[in-house]
């Protein structure tokens, strides 16, 4: 049975973080040592990021909160709110991204409406609340209350693949299943000033965003899918357990992102791909660059550099990953779906367009996947739903019975 990804939509919060401005603010914090200040400048400048997005609207030069919790523009100081304060914001702001991206994915899926959804899988590692994002999506989109709901929490940057793999399994078990997968992460909630290299690296890389996909094996005459879901594999590297981790602290979640991670990936990426590529005789032993597309989770510039060098991929094959990193930063689990969307929207080429994809996370875990590109999206103005011709935000406002202004997504900020 063939299972397809039929729509893939993304969403980001309205506040833009400018990398050079962020660097200057973090480098000016009074508690930094001279080494810490040098690390801030090096990490931010070498991240290959221009802009990121945050759900913390307070992180703007013009913000004038009566009681600032994250940033005091008057003094230029970064503050350190408790984990509870950060998580309360997650419950409110992550819900918006979960719902916005989910609604956009359903609206973009020809031949499917909200009542067709049989399974819902939500993903996040940057906060917790209950009733959770799965419940919020059911209510906001008017899904069948009996929809089967699953939440994958605290897995990290690779979690979109277990979610897609579960969706594929649901569809193979029930040919009539329609699965909605939604990843939303608010990584910027957990930024802080520090002299710790791992914390500095996290502050230079991580951002907020969401992505949602509709997956089904149904024969839907009205629409052609984006991608065919072929294979998934999971590999744990023999080293690296201490090099990448995600823990809960008193002042937010704490990232461990050792500078040895790119070297671990460099040493083990060939072995990690072997189980996936062995699934098809035509792929086993094929030069890596002969696979048309590579959707690599941009965990950081150095990771992309190592993967490209080790697999001898072309610069063009790294464009979707590098452009996602440059424009959006690392949004944890949602990021690889942004890369896949970039590839799905490229002009079609002759012949089969296979996509080899991978993401990395705590453990050190390497998740890999093989897709086949089916088509480019239907032509239409950017940002419009193919069903209604309205923007996703306009459709969301009408569905909610409220009118809201379009967010320009160009609001200046210190970061």
Structure overview:
- This protein has 415 residues and is of the alpha+beta class.
- It folds into two domains: 3-223 and 379-400, Thiolase/Chalcone synthase (Peroxisomal Thiolase, Chain A, domain 1), CATH 3.40.47; 227-373, Peroxisomal Thiolase, Chain A, domain 1 (3-Layer(aba) Sandwich).
- Helices cover 33% and strands 23% of the residues.
- The protein contains eleven helices and 15 strands.
- It has helices at 19-27, 34-45, 83-107, 133-141, 160-173, 197-205, 261-277, 301-311, 315-328, 335-344, 392-400, and strands spanning 3-11, 15-18, 51-54, 71-72, 77-78, 119-124, 148-153, 178-186, 208-216, 227-236, 244-249, 252-257, 293-296, 353-361, 365-373.
- The strands form four sheets. It has a nine-stranded mixed sheet with strand order 7-6-8-9-1-10-15-14-13, with helices on both faces. A two-stranded antiparallel sheet has the order 2-3. A two-stranded antiparallel ribbon has the order 4-5.
- It starts with a strand and ends in a 15-residue tail after the last helix.
- Residues 376-415 have low confidence and may be disordered.
The name of the CATH superfamily of the largest domain reads Thiolase/Chalcone synthase
**What is the percentage of strand-forming residues?**
15-25%
Please state the structural category. Answer: alpha+beta
| Shape, per Cα inertia axes | globular
Rg over alpha carbons: 21 Å
Instruction: Tell me how many strands there are.
Output: 15
Biggest beta-sheet profile: 9 strands, mixed
Which regions have little confidence, pLDDT < 50, spanning 5+ residues? 376-415
Q: State the CATH topology of the largest domain.
A: Peroxisomal Thiolase, Chain A, domain 1
CATH architecture of the largest domain: 3-Layer(aba) Sandwich
**Strand line-up across the major sheet:** 7-6-8-9-1-10-15-14-13
CATH class of the largest domain: Alpha Beta
């Amino acid at each position: 049975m063939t299972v397809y990804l039929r729509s893939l939509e993304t969403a980001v919060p309205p506040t833009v973080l400018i990398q050079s401005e962020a660097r200057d603010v973090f480098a000016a914090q009074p508690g930094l040592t001279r080494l810490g200040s040098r690390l801030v400048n090096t990490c931010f400048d070498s991240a290959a990021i221009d802009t990121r997005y945050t759900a913390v609207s307070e992180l703007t030069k013009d913000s004038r909160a009566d009681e600032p919790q994250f940033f005091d523009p008057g003094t230029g100081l970064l503050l350190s709110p408790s984990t509870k304060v950060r998580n309360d914001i997650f419950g409110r702001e992550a819900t918006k991204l979960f719902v916005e991206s989910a609604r956009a994915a359903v609206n973009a899926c020809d031949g499917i409406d909200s009542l067709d959804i049989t399974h819902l899988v939500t993903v996040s590692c940057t906060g917790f609340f209950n009733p959770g994002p799965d419940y919020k999506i059911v209510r906001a989109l008017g899904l069948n209350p009996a929809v089967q709901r699953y939440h994958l929490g605290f897995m990290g940057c690779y979690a979109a693949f277990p979610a897609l793999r579960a969706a594929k399994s649901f569809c193979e078990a029930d040919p009539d299943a329609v699965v909605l997968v939604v990843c939303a992460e608010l990584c910027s909630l957990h930024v802080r000033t520090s002299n710790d290299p791992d914390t500095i690296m996290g502050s230079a890389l991580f951002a907020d965003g969401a992505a949602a996909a509709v997956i089904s094996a149904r024969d839907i005459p009205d629409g052609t899918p984006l991608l065919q879901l072929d294979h998934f594999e999971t590999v744990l590297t023999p080293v690296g357990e201490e090099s990448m981790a995600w823990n809960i602290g008193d002042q937010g979640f704490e990232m461990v992102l050792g500078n040895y991670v790119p070297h671990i990936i460099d040493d083990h990426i060939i072995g990690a791909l072997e189980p996936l590529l062995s699934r098809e005789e035509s792929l086993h032993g094929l030069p890596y660059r002969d696979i048309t597309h590579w959707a690599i989770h941009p965990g950081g510039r150095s990771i992309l550099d190592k993967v490209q060098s080790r697999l001898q991929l072309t610069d063009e094959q790294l464009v979707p990953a590098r452009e996602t990193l440059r424009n959006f930063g690392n949004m944890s689990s949602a990021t690889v779906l942004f890369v896949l969307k970039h590839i799905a929207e490229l002009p079609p080429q002759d012949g089969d367009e296979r996509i080899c994809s991978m993401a990395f996370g705590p453990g050190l875990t390497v998740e890999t996947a093989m897709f086949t590109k089916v088509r480019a999206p239907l032509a239409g103005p950017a940002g419009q739903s193919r069903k209604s011709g309205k923007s996703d935000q306009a459709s969301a406002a009408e569905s909610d019975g409220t009118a809201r202004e379009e967010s320009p997504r160009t609001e200046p900020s210190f970061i």
